[in-house]
Amino acid sequence: MKSSLLWIAALALGFSYASAQKPNFLIIFTDDQGYGDVSAYQAQDVQTPNIDRIGQEGLCFTAMRANATVCSPSRAALLTGRYPDRVGVPGVIRTQPENSWGWFSPKVPTLADELKKLGYHAGVIGKWHLGLESPNTPNERGFDHFHGFLGDMMDSYTTHLRDGRSFMRLNAEEIQPQGHATEVFTNWANDYLKARAQAAQQPFFLYLAYNAPHFPIEPPEEWLAKVKARLPDLDAKRAMNVAFVEHLDHHIGKVLTTLRETGLERNTVVVFSSDNGGSLPHGQSNQPWRGGKQDHYDGGLRVPFLMRWPAMIQPGRRSDYAGLSFDVFPTFIELAGGKVPSGLDAVSLVPLLLGQAMPSPRDLYFVRREGGPAYGGKSYEAIIRGDWKLLQNDPWSPLELYNLKQDPQEKSNVARQHPQIFRELSSVLRQHIQRGGAVPWQPSTRPD
User: Fold this and answer.
1) CB count, 10 Å around CB of 317?
2) pLDDT class for 20, splitting at 50, 70, 90?
3) For 50-54, which contacts have Cβ atoms below 8 Å and span 24 or more sequence positions?
4) Cα–Cα dist 49/36, whole Å
5) Nearest-CA neighbor of 205 among 28, 4, 11, 5?
6) CB–CB of 183/167 below 8 Å?
7) The domains spanning 22-353 and 365-437 adopt the same CATH topology
8) How far apart are CA 134 and CA 172, in angstroms?
9) How many CA atoms lie within 13 A of 220 on its CB side?
C-alpha cells in the first residue's frame, strides 16, 4: 500500500508520486552528551554551532528522552523500536562476560533489517556496543557496511584499545586505524556518504555513533587551548569537557558539509541525539535537570534531539512533544513508504513533521540492570504517565513519585501525599517488568 506521507512529500518536492525518491536517513548518535552540552538548549560555556544548525534548519525537540540512562539499552531500543529489556538488553553489554548485563536478541529485526526490505543500503560507523561475536555483529544484524568499534569503550581515543585488545573492525576484519577516534569516524562517515552519492538510485541509512564525549575526556590539545583562552576562569575538568564537545561538534559539521557537497543534503533526514545524559563526575552538563548518567532523574534521561529534512521540514520549528529516542524507528519506516511492523513500543513522529497533533501520550518506561556492589546484578525502573513520574534510582532505594509539571527538577518526592497515583503507577510498572522478564538477557548455554 502506498504511503500517503510519501505522496505529500512528493508534492512538496514537485514530483509525481511515481518519480519521488525515498529519503536517505542519517542518525548521529553521541555518547553521554547531556542536555546542557548542546548550546541550542543551554547557552552557557559550550558552543555547538553545527549541532545547533540541525535544529535551526529543521525541528528542535525540547522534551525528548533517551530510552535508558546508559549505553547498550539505549542503542538496543533505538535500533529495534522496542523497550530494551524486551530485546534482551536491560543493561550494559561489556567486553568482560562476567560483568555483562545484556544479550541482544537475534530474533528481533533491526531498523537496518526493515529498511533493507525497502531497498536501502545500511551502514553503521562508530560505536556498536551490542555484541562482540556472532550472531550479534553489525553485519549479522542488518548492516551492509560496518566500520567502527565493537566494544563498550576505548581506554584511549588515540590507541583505540580496550584492556589491551583491539575491537576496531572493517566489517569482520580487525583493523588498527591511526588518529583520534572522533576524527577517524568522521572520515569514515564522509567516505561512506561520498560512495552512496555515486549510487544515487539506492537510498541509504547511515547510523553514525560517536564514542565522544564519553570518558576518558581526551580533547586534542589545540582545542583545549582555545577553550582556556576563551574561558580562562572555567573549572579545569569542565574546560576539558567543553573542548571535547566542541571538537566533536566541529567534526559533525564536516559530515553536514559532505552532505551538502555531494548533493545529498536536501533529501536526507538527519537526526541528532545522545544515548543518555552526561556523566556528572566527568564535568558534563545536564542543566537544568536533576542528576546525570545512571540516574532515572531527568538529567540521566532528557537528551538533545534535533531533526532536519530540507525537502519536508520547515526550518526553525520547535516541539515540546515528550517522546523517546526509539521513535525514529517507525518514523523512518513510514517515511520510506513501508508498513510499520506490529509489536513496536515506539511511536511514529510523522504527524509532527506534517504539522499535525500526535496521538494521546503513552506511558514512558525505563529500565537498567547493573552489577558490582552498588547494584548487585539487579534492575531498577521508572515510568512516566502524563505529568507523573515514578522512579527507583538504584535497586536498594524506595520508589519516588514526582509531578513533573509542578516540579520539573524533581526536588519534592510526593509519594506519601498521592498514594492512589503511587499504587496505580506501581501496578503499571510491574506489568512492564513482567514483560521484560520473559526475554533472556544472557546467552543460553544449553546445547539446543
Assistant:
1) 17
2) low
3) 50/249, 50/250, 50/252, 50/253, 50/256, 51/249, 51/252, 51/272, 51/304, 51/306, 52/306, 53/253, 53/256, 54/256, 54/270, 54/272, 54/306, 54/307, 54/308
4) 14
5) 28
6) no
7) no
8) 10
9) 12
Sign of CA dihedral 189, 219, 300, 168: positive
The residues, ordered by sequence, that sit 6+ positions from 355 with a Cβ below 8 Å of its Cβ are: none
Task: Round to whole Å and give the CA distance between 220 and 255.
Answer: 19
Distance CA 105, CA 69 (A): 20
337-372 pLDDT, tens per residue?
999 999 999 999 999 999 898 988 899 999 999 999
d(CA 42, CA 287): 7
Domain extents in the chain = 22-353, 365-437
Which architecture characterizes domain 22-353 according to CATH?
Answer: 3-Layer(aba) Sandwich (3.40)
Bond from prior residue into 109 cis (ω within 30 degrees of 0): no
**CA–CA separation, 364 and 14 (whole Å):** 38
Tens digits of residue pLDDT in 228-254: 999 999 999 999 999 999 999 999 999
The answer, yes or no, to whether residue 446 has pLDDT greater than 60, is no
Mean pLDDT of the chain: 94
Q: How far apart are CA 266 and CA 437, in angstroms?
A: 43
CA distance 424 to 390: 10
Average pLDDT over residues 92-118: 97
Q: Does pLDDT of 18 surpass 70?
A: no
Query: Kind and range of the H or E element at 241?
Result: helix 236-261
Cell of 115: 529498511
The pLDDT of residue 186 is above 90: yes
Q: Going by CATH, does the domain composed of 365-437 fall within 3.30.1120.10?
A: yes
CA 263/CA 197 separation, integer angstroms: 8
Q: What is the pLDDT of residue 21?
A: 87
Tell which residue, 28, 138, 31, has the closest CA to residue 74: 31
C-alpha cell at 60: 528542535
Phi, psi of 257, rounded to the nearest 5 degrees: -65, -40
Q: How confident is the model at residue 13 (pLDDT cuts 50, 70, 90)?
A: very low
pLDDT at 4: 46
Would the pTM of this model clear 0.85, i.e. be above it? yes
Dist CA 271 CA 25 (whole Å): 8
Q: How far apart are CA 16 and CA 7, in angstroms?
A: 8
Cell numbers found for residue 229: 583562552
